[in-house]
Amino acid sequence: MATIFKCFSGEKNALINPCDTTERADGFPKVCITTFSEGMIEAFIRNNTVKVIAHLYSANGAVPVYEVEYGNEKMGLFLSRVGAPACAAGLEEIIALGAERIILFGCCGILDRSLADGRIIIPSSAVRDEGTSYHYIPDSEEIRADGASVKLVARCLGRLGIPYVEGKVWTTDAIYRETRTLVEERKRQGCLGVEMEGAASLAVARFRNIPIFLFFYGADSLDDDGWEIRDLTDYGVSHGSRYMTIALECGVLAAHFGEPCIE
Q: Which of 36, 119, 132, 244 could form a disulfide with 84 if both were Cys (CB 3.0 to 4.6 A apart)?
């Protein structure tokens, strides 16, 4: 597999491209927000005015893309499928529809309670322990997040008065193969949390030249002799309003990302 991952093909055109399956939509929101909790999105649409503007299709079913308005900005909102390949495909299609800025957030397992407990994690980089990212950028142990994107999320959390920490995350393909040996190794590398989509999302965004803004909230904990499930199976719903507010506030800033002043 090391040989396969080292054989990166940088050709921009593939045999099947996102534009071959997804038609660009007129007036599509330039900023799109996505997360992995269906319950969180359902709660949001029950309590807010939204409209369906598109769908993402797969054998798993159709995923609605909603248009929401917040802070005088129209944004897209959609569910990302769990796992790097499915998440990457959704990002590809949302970009093909017309998205130019993406805010992606979800839960992670805490690897360092002393730094990450009670704080939002802003990934400064991700360990590439998955396969998808190697199809978008050349092989390397890690992928770094864009510094300006990290600063935007940090600025947003600072404005909201929400504690956060910037640091490395571990992106894995195998949730049931997070062994004690691997956890300890990743902790020595400086990883604060473990999740399944960060590295691939950063790679897709870099390949497509689209700014992406990531943050993760802690759910379970692996920073002990055993596993603490905590509120993992809540899927973020109990605190969904808080996380959605962070994402929407990031979206307002992201709408003006790259302009001389976004304050």
A: 132
CA distance linking residue 172 with residue 182, whole number of Å: 11
CATH no. for residue 38?
A: 3.40.50.1580
Q: In this structure, are residues 104 and 174 in contact, taking their beta carbons and an 8 Å threshold? A: no
The answer to the question of residue 50 being in a domain is yes
Mean pLDDT score of the chain: 93
C-alpha span between 115 and 165 (Å, rounded): 7
Domain presence at residue 102: yes
Residues 6+ apart with CB under 8 A from 213: 101, 102, 103, 104, 149, 152, 153, 250, 254
Global model pTM greater than 0.90: yes
User: How far is Cα 77 from Cα 47, in angstroms, rounded to an integer?
Assistant: 14
CA distance 105 to 35: 5
CA distances from 167 to 21, 164, 184, 199, 237 (A): 36, 10, 16, 13, 25
- Domain range spanning residue 181? 23-254
Judge whether 30 lies within some domain.
Answer: yes
Reply yes or no on whether the pLDDT at 263 is more than 80.
no
Q: Helix 84-97 and helix 198-208: axis angle, to 10°?
A: 30
List CB contacts of 119: < 8 A, sequence separation 6 or more.
Answer: 163, 164, 165, 218
pLDDT given for residue 260 in this prediction: 53
Counting the structural domains of the chain, the total is 1
Is residue 140 in some structural domain? yes
Non-local (6+) Cβ contacts of 117 within 8 A are 110, 218, 221
Write out pLDDT tens, residues 219-243: 888 887 778 887 777 767 888 889 9
